[in-house]
Design goal:
Helix 2 crosses helix 3. The relative contact order is 0.15. It contains 3 helices and no strands. The protein is an all-alpha fold.
Length: 74
């Protein structure tokens, strides 16, 4: 189930800046959060992530990076 506008507005200040120190600009956080939610709601493997969410490796890496940097704790 995708994030609503109200849910997004509530968590937006807690998410990292979309311009990382290295490399290019990150995709919209909302898309990745929706993809992560889909994965855990369905119990599916990452490789079965629907194409509309983008590359599963990128989403998985974002989940991991946010776990390491404390984003999920905030």
């Amino acid at each position: 189930m995708p994030l609503t506008d109200a849910q997004r507005a509530r968590i937006e200040p807690l998410l990292p800046d979309r311009t990382p120190k290295r490399g290019g600009r990150w995709r919209d956080h909302r898309e990745d959060i929706d993809a992560i939610a889909w994965k855990f709601q369905t119990g599916s493997q990452w490789v079965h992530l629907p194409e509309k969410y983008g590359n599963w490796r990128g989403v998985c890496n974002r989940l991991r990076m946010w776990a390491v940097d404390g984003t999920w704790e905030r």
